[in-house]
Amino acid sequence: MGEFLAAFLFEQHDIEAVHVDRDDADLWIRLPDGRLATVQVKATAGPMAEDDRRPRYHWTMSARRGREHADVDFYAFVALDKQLMVVLPRHELQGIHYRLPVDNLSLKAQTESIEELLG
Predict the structure, then answer these.
(1) CATH of the domain at 33
(2) What is the pLDDT along the chain (119 residues), one digit of tens a residue?
(3) Hey, which of 4, 10, 43, 90 would disulfide with 78, CB 3.0 to 4.6 Å?
(4) Residue 57 sits in which domain range?
(5) How many independent structural domains does the chain possess?
(6) How many angstroms separate the first and last alpha carbons of the chain?
(7) Three-state SS for 111?
């Protein structure tokens, strides 16, 4: 479900998105300059409270063949409850977990992350 929501959100920003079933990539996107990029989509149903902390969105990244991250250009972190996502280049991620405070996931954050990938 997250893959199709991510594709829809990319399309809303005039980024052509195609759902694929490849080793690491869930989506292929064509950027406005014609470049083709690969995206691994990670989805969560909603935020979780961890210990005594405020609730945060939490995604786990895992890759095949002993790699920490998938061999893709971008990760799209989708929150199904808000129907929003943030997109980050793979090289900016460290570790296998990505956490985001509830207040940091907004339409503004989504738009900024997409505009950043557009360069």
Answers:
(1) 3.40.1350.10
(2) 999 999 999 999 999 999 998 878 999 999 888 999 999 999 999 999 877 778 999 999 876 555 666 789 999 999 999 999 999 999 898 888 899 999 999 999 999 999 998 87
(3) 43
(4) 2-118
(5) 1
(6) 27
(7) helix
